Amino acid sequence: MIPKTILCPTDFSILSKQTLRYAAAFTSTHDARMTVMSVSDNFFGVDPDSTLYTSSMRTFISDLATLRDEIRSLRQVNVSSYHCLGNPATEICNHASKEHFDLIVIGSHGRTGFKKLLLGSVAETVIKKSATNVLVVKPSTNSDSSPTTHFTPAEPKNSPVVVPYDFSDGCDYAVEYASKLFSDETPIIALNIAESLDLPDESPDKKRLREKDVFEEDRDEFRNRMPLSSDDRISFRTHFSNDIAKRIASYCEQVDAKMVVIPSRQKSLLERIILGSTARSVARIVHCPALIVKDLDPAAKNMPDDLTTDMHRTI
């Protein structure tokens, strides 16, 4: 359950380098192995046999190797690097699946200007299409020295992890995943967003009593579903709103969450059209790192016990 192989794509921007530092800290904390990945999109169709293409690729690969070595010296983590040609989002998803990575750590932005207009949001596409868990990081734009994220050795232990909860098996798994990922004193908050039902001529006192009844009923159901609810780090909350993603994001900001862990179910096409993706919406607007947990049976991945750099095209 704890990620031991981590893939972190980079586009060499300042913001993506901050994401790499975050990923390195995450890798170090969990004694994992990390691969830094870059993709040459070759959008303008440069001839692969041309001198310009060969020179550009050499520069690309050299820069990636330098970045890999910087991470090694910074965090003393087990890190390799991988480079390929293709569509960035597609190649990231394919490589993560082929090599059985446990987690993709990706910045929510990084490309700017014309390239961003051409390529769209790589992070959102990866969240949507990847079968691998995805951790989306939003680095600061104010400094190139360090990421202003919550995952640092000095982070306050009372800064909670928030897990949006709707009484599904996927949410049960996400709560368990969060409790294993943060096995110290980190509080885990299961946050249920119930539909806000404003009744005509209802007094504020009656509304509070009705919402209290809903909360107590939901809390009892949560305790019955979750054996881990006996863990004193795990608590349950019910909030009322008709905008689920916005309420989750505002709550994370309110409690200064260090991470939000969101289960992402595989919906039918019709459900996607009608409901959209709550996970992607939350990841887009939340202030803290967002971990998207896919509804896959961990045992089904059948990951080998020992992944070596021989599996990767190392440089």
What would a concise description of this structure say?
By secondary structure, the chain is of the alpha/beta class. The chain has 10 helices and 10 strands.
What does this structure look like?
The protein is elongated. Residues 110-120, 143-154, 271-276 and 296-315 have low confidence and may be disordered. With 315 residues, the protein is of the alpha/beta class. β7, α7 (204-225) and β8 (234-240) form a beta-alpha-beta unit. It folds into 2 domains: 5-145 and 299-311, HUPs (Rossmann fold, 3-Layer(aba) Sandwich), CATH 3.40.50.620; 161-288, Rossmann fold (3-Layer(aba) Sandwich). Helix content is 41%, strand content 19%. A 10-stranded mixed beta sheet has the order 3-2-1-4-5-10-9-6-7-8, sandwiched between helices. α3 (88-98) runs parallel beside α5 (122-129) and α8 (244-254) runs parallel beside α10 (278-285).
Shape: elongated
Strand order of the largest sheet: 3-2-1-4-5-10-9-6-7-8
Query: What composes the largest sheet?
Result: 10 strands, mixed
Give the averaged pLDDT, no decimals. Answer: 77
Fourth-tier CATH superfamily name of the largest domain = HUPs
The CATH architecture term of the largest domain is 3-Layer(aba) Sandwich
CATH uppermost class of the largest domain? Alpha Beta
What fraction, in percent, of the residue positions are helical?
A: 40-55%
- CA-CA gap between termini: 29 Å
Output the CATH topology of the largest domain.
Rossmann fold
Structure summary, number of beta strands: 10
Question: Which regions have little confidence, pLDDT < 50, spanning 5+ residues?
Answer: 110-120, 143-154, 271-276, 296-315
Helical/strand content category: alpha/beta
Instruction: Tell me what portion of residues adopts beta-strand conformation.
Output: 15-25%
Q: Can you write the helix and strand succession as a string?
A: EHEHEHEHHEEHEHEHEHHE
